Amino acid sequence: MGYAGAMAHLIVKNARITTLDPNQPEAEAMAIANGEVLAVGDEASVMRHATADTKVVDAEGHRLIPGLNDSHLHVIRGGLNYNMELRWDGIPSLGEALLRLKWQAERTPPPQWVRVVGGWNEFQFKERRLPTLQEINAVSPETPVFILHLYCQAMLNQAAVRAIGYTKDTPDPPGGEIQRDSQGNPTGLLIARPNATILYSALARGPKLDLTDQINSTRQFMRELNRLGLTSIIDAGGGYQNYPEDYQVIQELERRDELTLRIAYNLFTQHPKEELEDFRRWTSQLKPGQGSDWFKLNGAGEMLVFSAADFEDFLEPRPDLVPEMEGQLEKVISHLVAERWPFRLHATYNESISRFLDVFERVNRDIPFAGLRWFFDHCEIVDDRNLDRISALGGGIAVQHRMAFQGEYFVHRYGAQAARQTPPISKMLASGIPVGAGTDATRVASYNPWVSLYWLVTGRTVGGLELYGAENQQSRQRALELYTHGSAWFSGEAGRKGRLQPGQMADFWCPFYKRS
User: CATH says 211-491 is which class?
Assistant: First the structure.
């Protein structure tokens, strides 16, 4: 298939191409012109688009797939910090993790910290336990160390306690606990109870990179994501990610034509009880879709009002949202719908989702959504009735593999039977709701999409616990679809990316091909 007579800039041949085009699922060659797929098919038909100037690449029989698209990744914030972080993703033993921590501490110059932020849990270690504060202090007595463990706690060595300025007189912040010893001195353990604000505020106290190093860090992070097959992401904003200050690095890279990921970004409210003012300001300045195919505004969220935050910490009971949440959320949703701004909203628990949908349905009666793109993030716990309500309002669900890192905790609190449909991905798909896959990296889960794909296909956590039966496990084909054209809906690009077929963006990945 292709455009007759058109000439290609690039042809890939001798490949095994997974197109995800239902009319032509497999091919052996592909022609590209001006960044779009020109033709896909057998080698003879595709080579008709070659000229003397066409670059022809022999894939040597390797598999080629559409570029992966993470529907929920905090790449803008993550890029600012990537070069400062030590990753424990996939490390099989706590002993090795502590050894890497020791090495990193020895080569980290003052006043910088060593940060381990997301992508790991204790169940991946053969020891099946967390590091102790004594072990962390032993391997790094002088260099500050901050280790974030999911949404539930952070472990700081005494050097980090001193750097932040915690003392026996420091009060516990709202929603968090500073653990203390018998004399009242901070031990270094910070506990999220019930939300993660204490963890993120402590992390924000660490030194930042200067602008030049932030640019380098962001480029390194993008190339790491490219290495893993990502060509697009949808940035979900994030706490302590302020607009426009923290966006200047990514904007500068776009200006230089140095972005290697297509980024659609959402704006995350920044001021508790002043959320409506945030969105009024932004809607007066920006329009959804503003930008380019490489960097553009996607809409609002994932935080719309702080009172609607139901962050999951399955070590703690489900948080009850405050009674004033509905009134605050309704004002923001009414404004966004009236301005035709797409939006996304973090939602973990069915009880929260019910209350959010009550607000959405009330707004829809006065200001019709009328095809406005909106979606929930996460939806670990959502029942059939609420799936029907989401479908009726034209919403989508962006699912992430947080359960791959927190599944053991969920099973301990709610039981293995409840975990079999957490989240109920197969039911979401059967209901016709648009579903896109992602990671929610980097503060809890790994940014590696293949960890997420493994979870989708096997139903297992990174610690090997089988959460789902066959009814909620996805085939490899379906999992790949969720990570490609499934996610394209969430940035308003369905039909433009996610499949290797004529007319779509020529974003693809060949995982094993290496040029000699």
Answer: alpha beta
